[in-house]
# Entry
Amino acid sequence: MLLNDALKKIQILFAEKNYVLALAKINKILKKNKQNLDLINNKSSILIAMERIDEAHNELQKIIKIEPNFIEAYINLGIVYHKKKLHKKAIDSYERALEIDKKSLQSIFNLASLYLEIDQCELALEKLNSIYVEAYSIDYFHQLMAECYIRELNYDKALAHHIIATEKNPNNPLNWFLLGVDYVWAGDKSNAEYNFMQAIKLNPKYAEAYFALTKVKDIDISSNLFKNILPLIGDEKIAERDKVFLYFALSNIYEGIKDYEHSFQFMDSGNKLRKKIQQYSFKNDLSFSEKIQSVYKFKIKNLTIDHSKVISKKTPIFILGMPRSGTSLIEQIISNNNVVFGGGELNTIHEELKKIIDSPTIENDIDFVRERYLKKLDRFSDKNYIIDKLPLNFLWVGYILKIFPHAKIIHTIRDPIANCFSLYKTLFIEGALEFAYSQKDIIDFFNMYQTIMHFWKVENKDQFIEVSYEDLIDNPRDESKRIYDFIGINFDLESIDIKNNKRWVRTASDIQVRERINKKNKQQWKDYQNNLYEILKNFD
# Structure
C-alpha cells in the first residue's frame, strides 16, 4: 500500500512535468524494490520524457528479460524506437504488444500515430478501425481518426470526428482548438472564432489558440483578450514554443490597428525565438540543393524510364516556387474548374525523393516513387487533373518531368522584397520552412532558389511556364487564361472569382485566398520598410 502511494505521488510529479524530482524519488524506491517491473517501467517513462532515450532503452530491456510478456514495456520500447527514428523496430515493438493483447488501445494509438508520421495513412486507418467500438468514447481516438482523414483530404469526415471528440470530452481545450482549425480551413471564420474562444475559456494560457484567433478576428488593444495575452509574454512558466505564438498573435493585433512599429517588434521577437528553438543552418539546404543538381546531371538527366505500365490516367499539376509567392492563389483559380481537384500541399514527391537521393539504386527507386504517388492521387479524387502545390517542389523540377513527362508545371514568381517580407511575417507549422525566421536566412534561401530554378530552365527549356504574382493580380483574366491554355482545359471567367471556391485550404494563405483577387497585398512590405534593411539592401 505504501509503495502504491509513493508511485501515485511520482505519477503526479510526472503529470506536472517535474521529471527531475520524479526520477530522484523513483530511484530511491527502486533501491529496495529492484525487481519491481511497474517501477522500472515508470522510470523508463520519466527518462523518455527527459529525452534520455538510451537510458530508457536499457531499463526496458531489463523488464523484458525478467518478463517477456510485460506489455507496457513493449509500448514504451516502441516510443523509444519511434524517437530514435527506427520506425521498423518501433512498429515491431507495438505489434509485439498487440500479440500480448490484440485490443491494447495504447499500442494501436501509438502505432497509428507512427503510421501517420511516415505517411502510411491507410495502415493507420486500418488499425484504428479495428478498435472503433472499443475506443469510440475516447476523444484521442477521434483526434487520430480526424488526422487520418485530413491526410487523405477527406475533410468532411475529419470535421465529423473532431465534433465527436468535443462531445466525448468537452473539457479538453485541444478538441475545441482542432475543430476551430477545421473551420479556418473551410473558410468559416465565425465557427472558427467560437471554437478558439472555447479553447481559451478552458485554458486562458493557450498561446496557439490566441494566435489562431487573431487570424479570424480583429482584437482591440483595449479588450480583455488583449489584456490576457500581453502578460503571458513575461510569464516564466510559459514555454518558449508558446511564446512564439504569442509574439505573432500580438504582431497580428497591432497590424490590425495599423501600428506597424509595434507589429514589427513582436514579429521580430517571434522570429528570433523560433530561430533559436529550431537552430536552422542554411549550409545544409545549400549543400542539399547542390547535391540535387549533381545527381540529376549524372544519374537522372539521361535516364530512360518505362512509362508503358502506368495505369493511372491522372495528370498532376505542380504549382511550385518560393513559399508565399502566390501558389495558393493559382491553385484556387485552377481548382475552380470542375475537371481539376485541388490537392493542396502534398509532400510525397519531396519526402520520397529526399529519401532516395543518396541511394546507389536511385534509377530503380524512382519507379517506386512514381507508383506510390500515382496511387495516392487515385485515392484522392476521380478527376483527371490533380493539383500538388507544395512550393518546395521547385527543388525537383527536372526529376518531376522525368518521372511524369505529362505533368504540368507552373512556376510562380513574385517581387523578391514582397516575397521575402511575406515569409518573415508568417508563422509556419513547426519544423517546416525553418529558413523563414531570419531576414538573412530568407535572402540566402531566395538566392539558392533562383540558382536552382535557373538550372532547371537551362536543363528543361520550355517544359514549364512561369506566372508572375503581380501580373496575375493586375490582369487576372489574361493570366488565368494563359494558365488554363497551358494545362489544356477550357477557361471560364468564373474561374477568377475565387470567393466562390468552397474547397478547404490548409496553407498559410487559408484566410487570404477566400477573398476576391485584389492588389492590397502587393506592396504590404512598405508599411514595414523601416525595419527591412537587410531585405531592401539585397533586392532594392
Summary: The domain at 282-539 is CATH 3.40.50.300 (Rossmann fold). The radius of gyration is 25 Å.
